[in-house]
Design brief:
By secondary structure, the protein is mainly alpha-helical. The chain contains nine helices and no strands. It folds into two domains: 50 residues, Arc Repressor Mutant, subunit A (Orthogonal Bundle); 135 residues.
Length: 202
């Protein structure tokens, strides 16, 4: 029987994430291996290329569950609750992954993600999902791409502001208004409530 691995993929990714965050895309796999306590060859037994390791480390190599739902699920009469759940999952993704992406983009000028950027992917998938709902009469006729951009843009903005607000190492100047903290579910509920007036079925 083969021996069980002495280190998990997540432990390798944690070491890789640390190196990439410090050095950008050019971080050395030799250094990653040293941090993980394994040989460089062991890394490439788990991840075929350095690029695959890089994408897995920042968390964008896997398609999130909500994107799979948007691309394949048929909307139902419960479109409002379905849309709310999708948006809550989307908030979780952007809060976890996007800070890593932005940080790495500042670390290296050569950073060019070999993939469709998540905001573009999500806007396109969401617009398609809304179009299917419109065709079935679950939403009124509207410009689905405009609605999708509004939702994805609002979620990006919320995720970025909440992340920044939680990590500012110094007091915000008194001349700036205090940022009101909003829980993700409350934010999504308020967002859908605001948009629903314009997209609810007639």
């Amino acid at each position: 029987m083969p021996r069980p691995p002495k280190i998990t993929n997540e432990e390798i990714l944690a070491a890789a994430r640390q190196v990439f965050l410090e050095q950008g895309e050019g971080g050395s796999t030799v250094e990653i291996a040293q941090k993980a306590g394994i040989s460089e060859a062991s890394i490439f037994k788990r991840f075929a290329t350095k690029q695959a390791l890089f994408l897995a480390a920042i968390g964008v190599s896997e398609t999130p569950q909500y994107a799979k739902i948007l691309s394949s699920q048929t909307p139902t009469a419960e479109i409002r609750s379905e849309l709310t759940e999708i948006c809550i999952q989307m908030v979780g993704f952007y809060q976890e992954v996007m800070p890593r992406v932005f940080m790495m983009m500042t670390q290296t000028k050569s950073f060019l993600p070999p993939m469709v950027p998540p905001p573009l992917r999500d806007s396109q998938l969401l617009a398609g999902y809304l179009d299917r709902a419109i065709s079935q009469g679950y939403l009124r006729s509207c410009d689905s791409m405009t609605v999708a951009h509004t939702i994805v843009g609002a979620i990006q903005n919320y995720s970025m502001i909440s992340t920044i607000s939680n990590k500012i190492p110094f007091p915000i100047p008194f001349v700036l208004p205090k940022v009101k903290s909003i829980e993700p579910k409350t934010f999504v509920d308020n967002l859908i409530e605001t948009l629903w007036v314009g997209i609810a079925p007639e």
